[in-house]
Amino acid sequence: MADIKTFHLPDLGEGLPDATIVEWLVKEGGSVKLDEPMVSMETAKAVVEVPSPYSGKLLKVHGGAGDVIATGAALAEFEIDPKMPQRAEAETTGHHHAPPKAAKGAGSEAPDHKGVVASDEGGEIVTNNNAGRADEGTVVGAMQSSDRVHAEQAMSVGGVKAVPAVRALAKKLGVELARVTPSGAGGVVTLQDVKNAATAGTAKIGAVAAADASPGAMRAQPSALSPQPSTAVPAAAQRTAVSAAGKPMRTTPPTVTATGQPEQLKGVRRNMARVMAAAHAAVVPTTLSDDADIHAWLPGNDITGRLVRAIVRACKTVPALNAWFDGENLTRTLHPHVDIGIAVDTDDGLFVPALRNADKLDAAGVRAAVNRLRAEVESRSIPPSELSGYTISLSNFGVFAGRYATPVVVPPCVAIIAAGKGRHQMTPVMGGFESHRVIPLSLTFDHRAATGGEAARFLKAMLDDLALAQ
């Protein structure tokens, strides 16, 4: 009798609750070797390749491209080949593969793990015969868990369906997704499609294909949106806001981005929602604000570089805010080094990469490091280890708009600084008034770990350093 093994999705990050399938690198029925890349998964932090835990035949996969798999849920089933090398049963893989325990009060999930809760492809939102399941009473900071696979399709933008990781790779390789031939289920563009197009050079951004430039070819192609003769009832008469069972359903074609419809959050936004809710529930935030007068600055000053230097100076002056705080054990860790989390806004959500050893870098080093982190975030190539472990945070939201803010402190950090949009204001000087340029600063800190006096002195140290000419 064949030896069948079930592989459960391991924790691909630091306690991440789920991950999204980007692409299966081995098809069902295909053979796979131990530690050979098996599937690429998008987590809240990066796109990673999951290696095969066995050698043999991949019998079954639980989910396709775009599906969200809970950590610990069944991911694949294997038929072990005894003639090929295998990992010893007692040998650890460094991950926990056991399926999660059922949440208290949660109903049982169907064994096929195919429950669709919010399909981007249209149709009724079903719950896999869980109509009788009791309300889990989920609240902020107390999320119920299960091994449900949320079937979600790649987002359609401009008529092209692809997951964020594929779009990021296309941007990096200079490939125009609209001209890539999709091979994924439902017309989804995969990572391999983008790689093939980049190698062939058939979909370079800015290039014009002959077929695209030919009006005759355009006329020869039937339009998917053109009305065709039909005896069917008009679509407007068929589509309603709810199904016959009274459940929500999409009322727009799959190729149209729907508004006013429920849509499951994925990847970065999914994790951001969890982190913000947990931070709101755990931290006791207090915010101080003031304006940094930068009238004395000489030409050539880098705003981000000066903000980083001011934070470093303030951390050395008031170490209490360059710290981690454990609210459960009421312990505080003061850090001798300064690693600054730099908030980076993207279409996929908020990333916070760590600017390591900021206290050791000069202005040029800070600028080079910030540019590198931003580029890695935009290409989604940044290692997960670089998205954690910072000792204090900086949000420079003023590049867009806004003066003051109440930024969110994410534990275990104690403080975050937010810089608003610079402006000119009338400042009293000896003999009259002058127009000085100022940068609004907001400092939010966890009042359990630091006093108001410590926060005020920290902010004062930043103001003093920013007031210097260079």
UniProtKB/TrEMBL annotation:
Q: Which CDD domains does this chain map to?
A: lipoyl_domain (cd06849)
**Positions of region (Disordered):** 87-114
Q: Answer whether the UniProt record assigns the keyword Cell division to this protein.
A: no
Instruction: Name the needed cofactors.
Output: (R)-lipoate
Which of the seven top EC classes does this enzyme belong to? transferase
Quaternary context: Forms a 24-polypeptide structural core with octahedral symmetry.
Family stated for the protein in its record = Belongs to the 2-oxoacid dehydrogenase family.
Identification of the protein by name: Dihydrolipoamide acetyltransferase component of pyruvate dehydrogenase complex
Source organism of this protein record: Dokdonella soli
